[in-house]
Amino acid sequence: MTDADEKGEFKLVHSLEQAKQTIRDVGERGSYLDVHEWCFTPTSFRLMMRDLFELGFIQLKELVFHPTQGSEFYITLSRHGHLPEGTRLELLAQILREQSVA
How much is the CA Rg of the chain, to the nearest whole Å? Predict the structure, then answer.
């Protein structure tokens, strides 16, 4: 059995405050933190943008979201937009559903 086959409770590993502290640590110490190779579902991108806004790293929110057509989705960002509704865990559950669609 591989890790991908295991079922269990869906939970967050780190809080937003832990992420913010890690970013501060990297900035203050100049240490390297490897965080690359992104692949998004519509909701994973929306959640990331919401988290970045709530952490104070960006001032943009969703103005318009266009659902997936083919293999692409589109989001227009603006200072006058809104944040996606739902808790972080609800959005993570939606991401899981999006990943399971073949």
Answer: 16
3-state helix, strand, coil in the chain (%, to 5): 40, 15, 40
Please provide the average confidence, as pLDDT, over all residues in the chain. Answer: 85
Model pLDDT for residues 1-10, shown as the tens digit of each residue: 445 556 667 6
Alpha helices in 1-102 (DSSP H): 16-29, 42-54, 88-100
CB 60 within 8 A of CB 79: yes
Distances (CA, A) of 6 to 14, 30, 94: 21, 37, 19
Query: Which residues are CB-neighbours of 98 under 8 A, at least 6 positions away?
Result: 41, 42, 43, 44
Q: What's the predicted TM-score (pTM) here?
A: 0.65
Q: Compute the distance between CA of residue 102 and CA of residue 96 in angstroms, rounded to an integer.
A: 12
